[in-house]
From TrEMBL:
Pfam family, one: ABM
Domain ABM as annotated: residue spans: 13-102
PROSITE patterns associated with the record: ABM
Organism: Prochlorococcus marinus (strain MIT 9313)
InterPro entries: ABM_dom, Dimeric_a/b-barrel
Name assigned to this protein: ABM domain-containing protein
């Protein structure tokens, strides 16, 4: 039997942010990522999972893996000053940034994501469940 839940702005979703770092900037970027990660951990209870992972085939490519409790958690993340600082410093150290969302989000969250101007692809949930 397949359990299908109603997915909307109140349900968890996964966001993958694919990052590319400029040559010679990896150490500085890793320091930036660690500072950002610590700040998010301390200030965002709606962030359920937050990691920065390096591509095994490209030492300049990384992925932020983020699980949000709901749309409100993402909107809080987007307005967090530490995230603003991170994005400003990314502009100096990085040369690529795209976002993929896996899950159903509401109109406000979708608009906020689109307003960042980053390449964005949203994969809507069709069936499944979250166990949080």
């Amino acid at each position: 039997m397949l359990f299908m839940a109603n997915f909307d702005a109140s349900t968890p979703f996964l966001l993958l942010a694919r990052i590319h770092v400029k040559p010679g900037c990896v150490d500085d970027y890793l320091s930036l990522a660690a500072t950002t990660d610590a700040g998010v951990k301390d200030s965002e209870p709606g962030m359920l999972h937050h990691t920065f992972d390096q591509d095994p085939d490209d030492p300049l490519a990384f992925v932020w893996s983020e699980v949000y409790a709901n749309d409100a958690a993402f909107l809080a993340h987007l307005s967090n000053p530490i995230v603003g600082d991170y994005l400003a410093k990314h502009a100096e150290l990085g040369d690529g940034f795209s976002v993929e969302v896996y899950g159903t989000i509401g109109a406000e969250c979708r608009a906020a994501m689109a307003a960042t101007g980053l390449p964005l692809k949203i994969f809507e949930t069709r069936c499944g469940y979250s166990r949080f």
